[in-house]
Specification:
Length: about 675
């Protein structure tokens, strides 16, 4: 369904209904550009930390506009074993609804516009008929301004729409405006003796309108209704003869009209609010930018700190899943060589995957994947959902007995929740929204600063004695240099000790320096309110009124057992009761969830039940896997599941970073990165 400003209000009930009945939602966005400064390779440095990547995207990508939002809802029909889909294509544009509403400035990137134009994108639908929107702060400000104007009207100040007897004396009229005001008074006096009930005054300045209101309020305390009428070209005052009852009725109509206009101005943000309140699983592909833009445009300005961004994201989207990360991880990475959306959609049509049965609901546009309407947000959301279903159902084949259908609420997909793919980072594959991010050692990496005139060839020349190196530019005067051997780092440091034109630091020294700089900045503690979208006291600089979707408690970034509510189960990753097959290929189960120690070389987890786990094979007997309590079939407990363990590697060179114990052979869980990556 194509939704523009013309049919948005009529479509809202349909959108709300589709979200409410869906098992999961898939989203996608199209933007006016990607980066306003560095090219994509610099914007996505292979050695970024999650904090650095977030800061770069916030700085260089948020001034672009998300102007097409795709939403596709998927509802499983158990009777016919198929999904019913409802795709929506929203065209979005921040058109100011009046002179006091925000007049947003945004930028475009020529390559992005050219690419979308080549794909047949209709820009007229965006700029002529795009749905307006306000974020939470803008909405609160406009409602406050509206209330302030009403209070001024009641006191006879400003541009009131009715005459109040509150003023006790005539308004002061400057000499140069007296002749004009006297002419207005004469016209109004004539109105009382005329059969005509309405008088339209000629357009005038804002100051003259104020003088007219104040003068008429004093001169004619009863019997008049005065209102400013605004057209696309001009504003003028309309004076009407009314009795008290009619005056009150007109004032009530005006307030209702103002409220309706304000609700219209909130516009597309109401759809995002509905998605947030639903608490449904939201699926996207390589969706970090989609999430950042959606929050920034329709909810609140992005916070400076990554941890604050994680908290905000979990309040707006409590359950996210990135299909690019899913396809890049065991057990899928050995089967899927190209994880771009178009290629992934083609791959999951083939064995061992199975294409899901889908049917488009009546009244909705039916997509044909053979025609490939790529880069239309609604279509991209649709095929993202198809990819998720195929991969989720493939997990069911590991159960005993196999299951052809895995629901969006199944414990089998829990490990993929709330982890967003980080593009082109060598050893940190995802941003963990509900816990600490991976912290690889990067002992083989050097941080080099040098004159602005240097080029890549100069760096290769400088490190020519160390064999193959990899250069990752940070800016014009700094870069990361990755050596092939860790023991070469100290040699490089020693040889550069007395250099004047350049400086070399270890990666650990670089991170330590950044942390010290960060500690110098005073971060005011944030507190997130729990009374919903409409909290008027929203102040982004100190706190924000983000509401938590119903049925969900506040989520801690690093939950510990002591923070859990009474009777609540510990937070687990859903895969912790499963292990990899042994050398014979037989399926095994872990006995318990006690071995929650995270991979020390990847991250030091503070969670009581860490996402990143290692398990001792000696514990692998005599337990049942975690039941899929929400699955319609309810029989996930009948089977066990197994993966093929990937070789133990570290970094881009795939070097071994962990020796197997002589006493016990350990098995590795799904997200023990970098082992499986």
């Amino acid at each position: 369904m194509e939704v523009t400003r013309q049919n948005y209000k009529d479509s809202l009930k349909t959108v709300y209904s589709a979200i409410e009945e869906a098992d999961f939602l898939a989203i996608d966005g199209e933007f006016s550009g990607i980066s306003d400064g560095p090219n994509v390779s610099a914007l996505t440095n292979g050695l970024d930390t999650p904090e650095e990547r977030y800061t770069k995207l916030k700085k260089h990508s948020m001034d672009f506009l998300l102007f097409q939002f795709g939403l596709c809802t998927f509802t499983y029909d158990q009777t016919n074993s198929k999904y019913i889909i409802k795709p929506f294509n929203f065209y979005v544009f921040p058109k100011p609804f009046n002179r006091t509403s925000p007049d947003l400035k945004f930028i475009c990137q020529s390559s992005s516009i050219d690419f979308l134009a080549s794909q047949g994108f209709d820009f007229n639908k965006v700029f002529c008929n795009g749905i307006p929107y306000l974020n939470q702060e803008e909405e609160a400000q406009l409602r406050e301004q509206t209330e302030e104007r009403r209070n001024q009207h009641a006191n006879g100040i400003g541009t009131q729409s009715f005459i109040s007897p509150s003023s006790k004396g005539p308004a002061h009229v400057p000499q140069e405006h007296k002749e004009y005001i006297n002419r207005v008074i004469g016209k109004v006096e004539a109105l009382f003796t005329d059969s005509v009930k309405t008088l339209d005054l000629e357009p005038c300045t804002g100051f003259q309108r104020k003088l007219i209101y104040q003068t008429l309020n004093w001169k004619f305390p009863k019997g008049l209704h005065v209102e400013t009428v605004e057209t696309e070209k001009e504003r003028y005052i309309q004076v009407s003869k009314v009795d008290d009852e009619e005056r009150k009725r007109r004032e009530q109509q005006k307030q209702e009209r103002e409220q309706e206009e304000l609700n219209d101005a909130v516009g597309f943000s109401r759809v995002i609010h509905a998605i947030s309140k639903s608490g449904k699983l939201v699926v996207g592909h390589n969706m970090l930018l989609d999430v950042m833009h959606t929050i920034h445009q329709f909810y609140c300005p992005l916070p400076e700190d990554l941890q604050d961004f994680k908290e905000v994201t979990m309040c707006v989207f409590p359950r996210l899943l990135d299909t690019k990360l899913m396809a890049s991880t065991q057990p899928f990475k050995e089967l899927i060589t190209n994880t771009s959306l178009a290629e992934l959609e083609k791959r999951v049509k083939e064995g061992p995957f199975k294409s899901p049965q889908v049917e488009t609901a009546a009244g909705f546009h039916s997509y044909n994947t053979a025609q490939e309407q790529l880069h239309e947000a609604g279509y991209d959301a649709y095929i993202t959902g198809l990819c998720f279903i195929s991969m989720a159902n493939y997990l069911g084949s590991f159960l005993t007995p196999p299951k052809p259908y895995i629901s969006a609420r199944s414990k089998l997909i829990d490990p993929f929740f709330n982890k967003l793919f980080l593009m082109r980072i060598i050893d940190i594959p995802y941003l963990n929204l509900t816990g600490p991010d991976l912290q690889p050692k990067r002992d083989h990496v050097l941080y080099v600063t040098f004159p602005k005139e240097w080029k890549t060839s100069d760096l290769y020349q400088l490190f020519s004695a160390f064999g193959n190196i990899q250069v990752s530019w940070i800016d014009d005067m700094s870069a990361f240099v990755s050596l092939s051997q860790t023991d070469q780092v100290q040699i490089a440091m020693n040889t550069s000790r007395y250099a004047e034109s350049y400086r070399i630091q270890t990666y650990a020294e670089y991170i330590k320096g950044r942390l010290q700089d960060k500690d110098k900045v005073d971060h005011t503690p944030k507190s997130w309110g729990e009374d919903g979208w409409m909290k008027p006291s929203f102040t982004p600089a100190t706190s924000a009124g983000f509401g938590y979707p119903r049925g969900l408690r506040k989520r801690s970034i690093s939950p510990v057992q002591g923070e859990l509510g009474a009777g609540e189960p510990p937070i687990t990753d859903g895969w912790s009761n499963y292990s990899y097959p042994d050398s014979t290929g037989s399926k095994k189960m872990k006995t318990d969830d006690k071995s929650g120690q995270a991979n020390a070389e990847a991250i030091e987890s503070k969670t009581s039940e860490g996402w990143l786990k290692t398990a001792d094979a000696s514990d692998s007997a005599g337990s049942s896997p975690i039941p899929d309590e929400d699955s319609p079939e309810g029989n996930d407990t009948e089977g066990t599941i197994t993966w093929q363990q990937a070789p133990t590697v570290q970094g881009r060179k795939g070097q071994k970073n962990k020796k197997k114990s002589k006493e016990t052979e350990s098995t590795t869980s799904l997200f023990e990165v970098p082992e499986v990556w």
